[in-house]
Amino acid sequence: MTTSDLGTASANAIRQYLRAAQDYHIDPADALAATGLPSGILDNSVARITGREFQRLIRYLVERTQDPLFGLNSARYVQPGSYSLVGYMAMNARSAREALHLTPEYEAIVGDMGITRIEKYGPHIAMRWICQYDDSVVRPHMIDNVLGSWLTFARWLADLPDGKPERVQFESAAPSAAQVVHYQQVFQAPLEFGAPRNALIIQESVLDTPLRQPDPELLRTLEQQAAAVMADIRQRHPIVMQTRSLLRSLMSDGLPRREKVAAQLGINERTLQRRLQEAGTGYQQLLDDLRREAATDWLRNTRMPISDMACQLGFSDARSFHRRFKAWTGMTPGEYRQQPPQPSVDSSR
């Protein structure tokens, strides 16, 4: 297996979706065969697949189930093993704070599906997830799965079955009233759709909650294993994948400068540019690709004002953004936003 522009995903993460598919009378082996994926995912004889392959599988499951809540429903099937080593490390942490801060550092072990950021706002913490996948059908299901899985797993870790966040934010537009009821049943908290991020918002004091079975010695052993796995993953990831992932994580704070990206990759600017050129691309091309991807996603799925998009994406003014967006798509941002929704699943169970 080689990496793709969406990186890789662990078989552990994939099996959560396949367990959920059985609720819809979809045989996991049949789903893998239909999408050209190896059956070894089921017994872990195949440990990882490419991100493109995983995205293809999720799209197949969404279209087969015809359920707009498939991603949300699949969160019920999270297990410690769904997060590979990271899940077992969290199980042995002493507090929610210790478990939480393991995620951004080691999440690539689970896969490159997204980037987790921990952001502090006064007495609140936002556990934010930035989806890396680019299929507009798959993204909302994956976001629902991740936020729902985080909360389900956290309730189990802390032995707090009724634990709930302060609120939950989704970039996607509000679903139907009937579907919102299902979201409320899962999260038991105020919901904000059309938000600027996908996140669980919690009181920082919650992070001091003790977990059910801390074992500091075992945690240290698992961290050593995780560090070795991460070193192998970094070595295998091509420079384009590393740069794209880092750019995505930094863009929420404004347009990242090349020297900052190079420094975080542990190389200088000249080396970064040379290695990207050897891979057939360049820094500006990657940045423009991600700006286009972010702009089209925000226009489809959020109510963010176009002037705010222009600023967030580093354009000097809205007119410059309009010109660039029209060059990308042949339409102005306003025309793009007014397009009819793309066909997607529309029936409920």
From TrEMBL:
Residues 241-339 form the HTH araC/xylS-type domain. Keywords: DNA-binding, Transcription, Transcription regulation. InterPro entries: AraC-type_N, Homeodomain-like_sf, HTH_AraC, Tscrpt_reg_AraC-type_HTH. It comes from the Bacteria. It holds the Pfam family Arabinose_bd. SUPFAM superfamilies: Homeodomain-like. One of its GO terms (cellular component) is cytosol. GO terms for molecular function: DNA-binding transcription factor activity; transcription cis-regulatory region binding. This is AraC family transcriptional regulator. It comes from Bacterioplanes sanyensis.
